[in-house]
């Protein structure tokens, strides 16, 4: 058992290193992920911000949680893309013929997604600070925000893995991310849900992005979180578990 665990960690380190080298040799992937959310943040703060009644004097504080989720939804598309290329080029079959733990091939991509998205989120927060973002959150609140964002990243990454392993074309592998990127628009990420028509408001208030955004926003502003954090965690964990099971099933089919 100890030997199996040792070899799994060793194999995982190799696969993670391989995927991370792809990231660092092509840093444009991280910059591409950051460009659209940062552009959206600039547009909404400096163009639309004065016309939006968000109930706060500092609109960038209100906007930032939704922008972070958009960046993560955009970033996980690269997981689907890289998994599809590995499958199409026969690299997975080559790995499966080697004496390594098969699951590490998939986990290497997943952990790379977490690391690359952490970098993207850090860049966006730095830009937000330059735009006037300020937080009264303590260390524990920041750790809670980081935990929610990592769980959200893992949940979407496993969805991306399903797309990458099941797609027939490279376009199909990354197309799944488009609805995820635009989901924050129908939530409380940009405007309070009170201003929405009844049908739209009902959807916005009962979809995962709203509860996640509200939890992060409350944590960053030092306000009571209430039930939002538990709803957010339930959404993230529920999506992650279901997506993981389907991703593993798709991976086993591709390895057969």
From TrEMBL:
Listed A to Z, the keywords are: Cell membrane, Membrane, Transmembrane, Transmembrane helix, Transport
Record PANTHER family: NODULATION PROTEIN J (PTHR43229:SF2)
Which species does this protein come from? Paenibacillus auburnensis
Q: What is this protein called?
A: Transport permease protein
Record's bilayer topology term: Multi-pass membrane protein
According to its UniProt record, what is one Pfam family this protein matches?
A: ABC2_membrane
| Localization per Swiss-Prot or TrEMBL | Cell membrane; Membrane
- Residues crossing the lipid bilayer are 30-50, 62-84, 105-133, 139-163, 175-193, 229-251
- The answer to whether keyword Transmembrane applies is yes
Question: Could you tell me the gene encoding this protein?
Answer: drrB_2
């Amino acid at each position: 058992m100890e030997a199996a665990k040792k070899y799994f960690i060793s194999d995982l380190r190799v696969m993670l290193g391989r995927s991370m080298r792809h990231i660092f040799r092509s840093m444009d992937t991280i910059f591409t992920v950051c460009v659209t959310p940062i552009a959206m943040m600039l547009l909404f703060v400096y163009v639309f911000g004065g016309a939006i009644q968000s109930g706060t004097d500092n609109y960038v504080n209100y906007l930032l949680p939704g922008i972070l989720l958009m960046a993560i939804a955009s970033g996980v598309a690269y997981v689907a893309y890289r998994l599809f290329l590995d499958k199409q080029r026969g690299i997975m079959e080559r790995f499966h013929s080697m004496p390594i733990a098969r699951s590490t091939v998939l986990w290497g991509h997943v952990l790379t997604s977490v690391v690359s998205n952490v970098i993207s989120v850090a860049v966006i927060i730095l830009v937000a600070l330059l735009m006037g973002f300020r937080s009264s959150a303590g260390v524990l609140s920041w750790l809670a925000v980081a935990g929610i964002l990592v769980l959200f990243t893992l949940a979407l990454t496993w969805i991306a893995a399903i797309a990458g392993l099941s797609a027939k074309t490279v376009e199909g592998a990354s197309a799944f991310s488009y609805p995820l990127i635009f989901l924050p628009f129908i939530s409380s990420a940009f405007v309070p849900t009170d201003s929405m028509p009844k049908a739209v408001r009902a959807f916005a208030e009962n979809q995962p992005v709203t509860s996640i955004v509200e939890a992060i926003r409350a944590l960053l502003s030092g306000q009571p979180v209430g039930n939002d954090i538990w709803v957010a965690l339930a959404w993230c964990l529920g999506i992650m578990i279901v997506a993981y099971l389907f991703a593993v099933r798709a991976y086993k089919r591709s390895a057969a």
